[in-house]
Amino acid sequence: SDRTLKIWTPSSLPFCMSLEGHRAPVISATWTNKGLASVSEDMAILLWPHDVKKYERSLRKPKSHPIIIQPTGTLSGHTAQVSSISFSSDGMTMVTASHDKSLIVWDTLTKKA
Question: Residue 56 is inside which H or E element, if any?
Fold first, then answer.
């Protein structure tokens, strides 16, 4: 309910990366070699840096707060809460499902439906 995604590794505990950008609770996220994407009650599909792992080394340094990462893009097209997201096995397409009773197939290169 805090509108963020948290990523951590066993070696980085208790510190984490905090991915912030949604305006409502995050419902689902998916990861592929092409990137990370998340969906939320705010109807947005947020795209995150595909190289989030590069931040992992920073997590091992003692600090009192998480590393904040901002989205690299936003996709829109649904008119209600987006409830599910999935990448194709090759990472070239992504499908989102919404409470507006629609599925949208996205091209991950052009970021268009």
Answer: helix 56-59
Instruction: Write down the pTM of the prediction.
Output: 0.85
> Cα–Cα distance between 86 and 91 in angstroms, integer?
9
CA nearest 31: which of 1, 4, 52? 52
Do residues 6 and 18 make contact, with C-beta atoms less than 8 angstroms apart? Answer: yes
Mean predicted confidence (pLDDT) in 3-17: 75
What local confidence, expressed as pLDDT, does residue 50 receive? 76
Q: How many helices (H) and strands (E) does the chain have?
A: 1, 10
Counting Cα atoms < 13 Å in the Cβ hemisphere of 3 gives 11
